[in-house]
Design brief:
- With about 280 residues, this protein is of the alpha/beta class.
- The chain folds into 2 domains: about 140 residues, Periplasmic binding protein-like II (D-Maltodextrin-Binding Protein, domain 2, 3-Layer(aba) Sandwich), CATH 3.40.190.10; about 100 residues, D-Maltodextrin-Binding Protein, domain 2 (3-Layer(aba) Sandwich), CATH 3.40.190.10.
- It has 10 helices and 14 strands.
- The strands form 3 sheets. Strands 1, 5, 6, 7, 8 and 14 form a 6-stranded mixed sheet that branches.
- A hairpin with a 2-residue loop joins strand 3 and strand 4.
- The chain is globular and about 60 Å long.
- The termini are far apart.
């Protein structure tokens, strides 16, 4: 039995409408951000020189780098939410913000759950001590000492792994590992003599030691594997194009020389980071 021309036309129109609606419903996170002209970002603004507060505004290396990336989102406003680091990744997973623009160390566990951009800086962990503490000359001297780091951080993980390494060598290991909400609190306790050392990334420690050489110094060599900081999105199809936009912007800043300029401005030195891939995390 043949369909009449009118019935066939109705079917064709219905099919076209269905295809249109399917495409309309396929808008991803980047499309929605462009439509709303608003990008909500999670940031921990207590991580100088990457992110810190100055006169009520978030400033630092990531702020300047973000401004370069946002050139590819004309008309879109970046709304940065300052939250404790411990709430950053859970907040992203819970969709409290669209993306994370704060310095997150890439680890195996995090890489399994989230989508990282290309690296923005090196994050290899070293030891910070008081300059007048002659008892700590090398990392192994921390055996029997009290060490602090930020709760939930990769730097804390490195401290724990270093403690196990010392014990495996027949040494007492660290006397205690104290956890802090922010690194600024750990630095204050170190300066006051309540800690013997803090585990933190070299890129953060360089500017700190330069600003306060009479108080702090770095113990060589580094105690962690070579790692990187990156920004983070959700690991799903909805977020894929937004993550790519950020990675593309970071790559452009890296190869164009702007990233090196910003590193010199905020760290006082440059770091060579890959512009075409994110190295597989070693920890």
């Amino acid at each position: 039995m043949r369909l009449g021309q009118r019935a066939f036309a109705r079917m064709a129109i219905g099919l076209c409408v269905g295809v249109f609606l399917a495409h309309a419903g396929a808008a991803d996170l980047l499309d929605k951000v462009k439509e709303k002209k608003l990008l909500t970002l999670g940031t921990e603004a207590q991580f100088a020189p990457f992110e810190s507060m100055e006169n009520g505004k978030i400033v630092g290396y990531s702020t300047d780098l973000l401004a370069l990336v946002m050139q590819d989102l004309p008309g879109v406003k970046a709304d940065r939410k300052d939250v404790p680091f411990q709430a950053i990744l859970p907040g992203l997973a819970a969709r409290k913000f669209d993306f994370i623009v704060t310095s997150v160390t890439v680890t195996k566990e995090r890489d399994d759950k989230f989508a990282f951009t290309l690296p923005i800086a090196e994050a290899t962990v070293a030891v910070l001590k008081r300059s007048d503490n002659a008892a700590v000359q090398k990392p192994d001297d921390l055996s029997g000492k009290v060490v602090g780091s930020q709760a939930g951080s990769a730097q804390l993980k490195v401290a724990r792994e270093f403690d196990q390494k010392l014990k495996s060598q027949g040494k007492p290991g660290l006397k205690e590992i104290r956890e802090y909400t922010s690194f600024d609190e750990a630095y204050a306790d170190l300066a006051a003599g309540r800690l013997d050392a803090v585990t933190q990334s070299l890129s953060n420690l360089g500017p700190l030691v330069k600003a306060r050489p009479d108080v702090f110094s770095v113990v060589q060599p580094a105690i962690g594997p070579k790692t990187y900081y990156a920004w983070v999105g959700r690991k799903d199809a909805d977020s894929a194009s937004l993550v790519k936009l950020f990675s593309d912007g970071i790559a452009k800043a890296n190869t164009g020389g702007q990233m090196s300029q910003l590193q010199t401005k905020w760290f006082g030195f440059t770091m060579s980071v890959p512009a075409d891939h994110l190295p597989k995390p070693e920890m």
